[in-house]
């Protein structure tokens, strides 16, 4: 071989070696990135024990191949409270959504779910999609509580204003379209939300045929997502996390606590008392008012019914964590699970409600009660298959996702040590 031939061979070898190194490095980077992709699916009203009586083959397959746990929701066990705690890792007393309709003393009014969803003053903390975006990771939210508001001027790269009527198949298809984008545009963290199970259980009851059908409907669409990920070649490199916000329990006209016979609350601020109706059936009532009047009405109501607890602001159980400085109620009336508190602005007697079939089950009770426990399922390359039954608080999900995404978590109330054992590579 001539000198020039040897030089050419050496140069060609160097070019081939360089190509192999670059290609291998890029492949490893892509694999690493894909392994960190997370899709968090919010399934409203999926009870911790749903699968004991209702089949859901796709969700149960994910649970069997990965992790499933009961999850302790935040208090009160309501939707806005808990989906925002899941997103931020914060107790309600720190993120501010202490109910579906929080009242703020400084603002001087109750949160409006139509007009305030994009107003930053109502939303505390830093949701996981904001933490990710701040650290250079693209995110997309297909509906989630708090996902429409800019936090510190930052929003998800892709987001949707909530539309309950949006077809579920279309939701899945759009999520898959995001994942089919070129790498530089593709979100690494995505949320998806389904409300059908909650709606069915509220209207028809726990284990009703309508709830069974709703579980099957949601499970079908999760199956569509799995099939779409497989078609994209991304299923084995994607982490699917399914979370719910609360459990559910049936109600009865035989379990109604009529507080009108002991006290008149019509002169107080009661955020859950809708302006359009003058009666309320509720698992709890948050009441705001003058300190002297609150003291008097608390005395009138304490001990009046064995299935109702009465808490003044300095008496909340320590595990409630919802005494926000501007929004914590001055008085809370809390029924035992399965009971309802009735109050009327005009002293109307409670008419049969639950036996009529118009509203059969609800949530909002003590967050440690078994009927209020939520569901957690996770499957993917980040998760170590496990079948132990240890539950954890939903505020730990934020740190778990931050660990998988390899980002620094914002200040939160969770503890990664509670969920580290679920991961192949635990975080500090």
UniProtKB/TrEMBL annotation:
InterPro entries, A to Z: Alkaline_phosphatase_core_sf, Phosphodiest/P_Trfase
CDD domains, sorted: Enpp
SUPFAM superfamilies per the UniProt record, alphabetical: Alkaline phosphatase-like (SSF53649)
Lineage top rank: taxon: Bacteria
Protein name: Alkaline phosphatase family protein
